[in-house]
Amino acid sequence: MIGVVIAALALQLAPASFSEAQTVIEACQSERLGIVSTEYGDVLCVRQSLASRDVERVARLVERLQRAPVNGLVLRSAGGRVDLWLDLIEASQPPRSFVVVDDICLSSCANYGFAAGAVRIVPDGSLVGWHGGPTGDAAFMEQFIRDVAGVSADDAPELVALGARTEALYDRLGLSTQVLQHSHRPSPPFNLTRLRRRLGGGAITGVAFEPAVLASCFGFDGLDLMTHPGDDAATLRASWAKSRRWGLFTRPGDLVTACRPQRAR
Questions:
Q1: Alpha carbon distance, N-terminus to C-terminus of the chain
Q2: Who contacts 19 (Cβ-Cβ below 8 Å, separation ≥6)?
Q3: Which of 47, 106, 170, 248 could form a disulfide with 239 if both were Cys (CB 3.0 to 4.6 A apart)?
Q4: pLDDT tens across 130-175, in order?
């Protein structure tokens, strides 16, 4: 009985500082895609993009996660296949106690992995970036599917199904899929062209939302240990320092009127 209680308490633990989170990151250094044991319980490590070559490995992990969910996640990924990310995160029975971002978490990693933790830890120098994804909103999906596949929603039932799964996951987590809609082909701030030229150029691929925006606009919490580079110039520098293919800014233009983050009192 005592052992059961101790195990249950372990599954509620989360790192309370960046130094504690670092010990979990270090535990994942030898595991690109798998599960490791830490003092905070078992942790799912995803330190790569998920691609077709990973289908069998993900399937084995899904079976293990369904039997014994992990307590947290460590993520270092530029994203990858939506279906594989959904398989992993759904099987982990979210929300998990914590998620730690190690350097980058982009695209499907942000959409599914970062969303899955109750405590969300982003150490200094790490970045979370969104550039859209499927949702359950029919009108949005019609445009999304035309943009990414060049066909109508009727001709892409698999993408519609991924949107429905995403909507169900976000409902479970108490989050708004508007975070995906606002980051799909986001409208850049008026000064981005000038900033891009001044900073030497590079691709503009998505949005690194500020913690206040994630909380006020999309329902994210557990963000006390989420760092953020700052304004658009700092965010572009930080993302381009990692890769000139990953240009991130802080907030789409249409979000300024659609959601105004509340100031702390």
A1: 45
A2: none
A3: 248
A4: 999 999 999 999 999 999 999 999 999 999 999 999 999 999 999 9
pLDDT tens readout for residues 220-242? 999 999 999 999 999 999 999 99
Beta bridge mates, 80: 50
Q: What is the pLDDT of residue 199?
A: 85
For residue 64, which of 41, 44, 40 has the smallest C-alpha distance?
A: 44
Largest distance between two CA atoms of the chain: 64
Cα–Cα dist 259/152, whole Å: 29
Contact 244, 203 (CB under 8 A): yes
Instruction: Report CA-CA distances (Å) from 196 to 73, 231, 242.
Output: 34, 13, 16
Taking only the tens place, the pLDDT of each residue in 163-195 is 999 999 999 999 999 999 999 998 888 788 888
